[in-house]
């Protein structure tokens, strides 16, 4: 009798685990860590990607982060492993689009931070460190502001900018925003030297933290 009870409990556990999975077509992307799916039953569900935090609207790389998530998930079928509901009514989950883990994709490409307040996933932490070392995405910015600080209006210490003129600039091989000493120099490298990585979100403004 105990064996039968244990077996039934195991079956119930498996059914419960399966109930924690959602699937549907991604019908909209709000930003780099939030999307909406439409299930087969025509239910719209807003999903907040678990364990990551992407740049807020108005932050540098916000548009680039949104585009990055859109490229792999928009109008694709998504499978979501859910972890509950946040205070805004959004479903928290690990999202896979065409077998690509969107949470890892965003961090790996420098399009989101690991949200350490809610997760210390060592796989994500390692991906973030790798993206930072390579200067990918938001890590190309010399002073990236985490979204949680941006939401609370916390800014990093001001770094003095050396004034100069375009006539003194040359294409000497600088590749990253952290190497620029002024907005004028960043614009020179973008427009004259063709260092397009300085304008990650393709809005014509390089190194948005100093321009």
Index terms:
211 residues; alpha+beta; OB fold (Dihydrolipoamide Acetyltransferase, E2P); 2 domains; 5-stranded mixed beta barrel; two-stranded antiparallel ribbon; 6 helices; 30% helix; elongated; disordered N terminus
Account of the 3D structure:
With 211 residues, this protein is of the alpha+beta class. The protein has two domains: 139 residues, OB fold (Dihydrolipoamide Acetyltransferase, E2P) (Beta Barrel); 54 residues, no CATH class. 30% of the residues lie in helices and 21% in strands. It is built from six helices and eight strands. The strands form two sheets. A five-stranded mixed barrel has the order 1-2-3-6-5. Strands 4-8 form a two-stranded antiparallel ribbon. Strand 6 and strand 7 form a beta hairpin. The longest helix has 18 residues. It is elongated and about 65 Å long. The termini are far apart. The N terminus is likely disordered.
Layout of secondary structure:
Elements: H1 2-19, E1 21-31, E2 34-38, E3 44-49, E4 52-53, H2 62-73, E5 77-85, E6 91-97, E7 100-101, H3 102-108, E8 113-114, H4 122-134, H5 147-151, H6 183-191
Parallel strand pairs: 3-6
Antiparallel strand pairs: 1-2, 1-5, 2-3, 4-8, 5-6, 6-7
Helix pairs in contact: 3-4
Q: What is the compact description of this entry?
A:
Helices cover about 30% and strands about 20% of the residues. It is of the alpha+beta class.
Q: How would you sum up the major sheet? A: 5 strands, mixed, barrel
Kindly report the average pLDDT value. 84
How many domain modules?
2
Q: What is the terminal separation in angstroms?
A: 72 Å
Q: Spans of 5+ residues with little confidence (pLDDT < 50)? A: 1-19, 157-167
Helix tally equals 6
